[in-house]
Write a structure and sequence with these properties.
Blueprint: H1 6-15, H2 17-37, H3 45-70
Helix pairs in contact: 1-2, 2-3
Length: about 70
Amino acid sequence: MFPEYRDLITRLKGHDAHFTRLFDKHNELDQVIRNKEARIEPGTHVEIEQLKKEKLLLKDQLYTILRQASA
């Protein structure tokens, strides 16, 4: 996710608790979605779509923070 901001992500994860929480939650949702899609965990199509929307909102928030921090 956001390879162009790799160094900045590393710095923010070490110094910004809010960013770190969002980043970790995004990764957690990504894993849950993959598990549900692979049928490792039970989940309906509707559930998976809702999780994807939540993950996308987190990604948008992360991107906003990254853009502001890089300015």
